[in-house]
Design goal:
Helix content is 39%, strand content 14%. It is of the alpha/beta class. It has a six-stranded mixed beta sheet with strand order 4-5-13-10-11-12, with helices on both faces. A four-stranded parallel beta sheet has the order 8-7-6-9, sandwiched between helices. Helix 4 packs across helix 5 and helix 13 crosses helix 14. The chain is globular, with a radius of gyration of 21 Å. It binds pyridoxal-5'-phosphate and zinc ion.
């Protein structure tokens, strides 16, 4: 573990100790970067040591995380991360890419990428002795916090918009969190959570507010490093990583993970990071393409509920993730997202709309020549299709209902 860390504001560069500040910059509300002691880490561990580790979860990177070991052995808290990397021949052929991997985050304990952030936030909560953790969520962050908390007996309260998909609400309730369904948007729930956490002294996990979430999410970059860069050897072209973007915290976290590795001298060149947003929720892509860092809110409207955000809470760092790595932002329509669900499904991978958005973005990037056939590419499926079955059914044709006769079968099987 690396407990010697402090914060630096991503907007004004002011540095703070963990005693001074817990969430965002008091001067300008900027997101805080966690600054690790790289010297100390280099002394304590090495790529050889880490890759020889035998913990099949994100906890294999504990030496690069700003939290103490949370315990919880034998529970789902120890199963977050270390997700499989698939290389489906069908998809490689469809896109004409020689080296394509899908990192399947639906294999996390609560079936989305959010387990990475929630596991590490729960570790922090236990370390600081927080009685209650709270989060606003469109569903997945809450399910992850509820699940990771339940694993170790931590009390959790979740604020979700009442329109959240039923499967996600069911997860919250089954994981025994206290659930408050807000009659409003995710953004309304977000603001209310911050007020409530101040009023009641709860520890707040909110995405793009609590600086620890990005530290959990960066572990996906460590895995891509270990599973692709380290294991599969070197490529002549830089690695490209495709990420779907709502609040911008996953893409910022992945950027941070690669920056950590680069600063440690363990990564030769930075991968290019591509953000993919839904056309109806494109505040970060808009800023990127306008060439500035001012995030102008939109009135979000997309079927990909996990990336439907009016005002992204980690927008500035999300713009930089693409800009500083030679990536870009790609926009896709809801129709293209549904098409990507079907395409991934044909390869045996079941994604929720926001999970398939990254793949829809890759299809577009290939069409536009942003990615070359010999570019190694990793696409992250951020969440399981079981999270939103209604959307999944829109991506496919209905099954015929038939009489139980062979004649009826013959009419359908042509
Ligand atoms: C949260 C989430 C995203 C987007 O992450 P941000 O940090 O909000 O950009 C993408 N896909 C899924 C499935 C998610 O749950
Ligand atoms: Zn600041």
């Amino acid at each position: 573990m690396n407990l010697q860390f402090h914060y630096r504001c991503s907007l004004c560069n002011q540095e703070y100790t963990t005693e001074q500040v817990q969430y965002t910059c008091p001067a300008d509300g900027g997101n805080l970067d966690v600054i690790l002691d790289y010297e100390n880490i280099r002394r304590a561990t090495s790529p050889t040591k880490i890759t020889a580790g035998n913990e099949p979860s994100l906890w294999r990177y504990l030496s690069l995380l700003p939290v103490a070991d949370p315990g919880g052995l034998g529970t789902p808290l120890r199963a977050a991360g270390w997700t499989p990397l698939f290389s489906p021949p069908l998809l490689k052929a469809a896109l004409g890419l020689e080296n394509l991997w899908i990192k399947d985050e639906s294999r996390n304990p609560t079936a989305s990428f959010k387990d990475r952030a929630s596991a590490v936030v729960v570790a922090r909560a236990r370390q600081i002795g927080a009685e209650v953790v709270v989060t606003a969520s469109t569903g997945n962050a809450g399910a992850a916090l509820a699940g990771m908390s339940a694993a170790v007996g931590q009390k959790a309260i979740i604020f979700a918009p009442r329109t959240a998909p039923p499967a996600k609400v069911a997860q919250l309730l089954v994981f025994n969190a206290q659930v408050l369904l807000v009659d409003g948007s995710y953004d309304d729930a977000f603001d209310l959570t911050i007020q409530a956490s101040q009023e009641f002294g709860w520890y707040c996990r909110n995405t793009g507010y609590n600086p620890i979430t990005a530290e959990g999410k960066k572990t996906a970059a460590f895995e891509i490093w270990e599973q692709v860069v380290f294991t599969a050897g070197k490529y002549t072209r830089p690695l490209s990583v495709f990420v779907s973007v709502g609040d911008g915290n996953i893409i910022s976290g992945i950027h941070k993970g690669f920056k950590d590795l680069f600063a440690l001298g363990w990564l030769e060149s930075m991968p290019r990071i591509f953000g993919v947003q839904a056309e109806g929720s494109a505040a970060i892509a808009n800023a990127f393409h306008a060439g500035h860092e001012t995030i102008i809110p939109v009135s979000a409207n997309t079927l990909a509920d996990s990336i439907s955000v009016d005002l992204p809470r980690d927008g500035v760092r999300a713009v930089r993730a693409a800009k500083q790595t030679g990536g870009t932002y790609v926009l896709v329509s809801d129709q293209e997202i549904l098409g990507a669900i079907a395409a991934l499904g044909k390869a045996g991978i079941f994604a929720e709309p926001a999970g398939a958005t990254s793949y829809a973005g890759l299809i577009k990037a290939v069409e536009q020549g942003l990615v070359q056939p010999d570019d190694p590419v990793v696409v992250i499926n951020t969440g399981s299709g079981l999270k939103d079955v209604r959307a999944a059914m829109q991506a496919v044709r209905e099954a015929p209902v038939i009489e139980p006769t062979l004649a009826a079968v013959k009419r359908v099987i042509k």
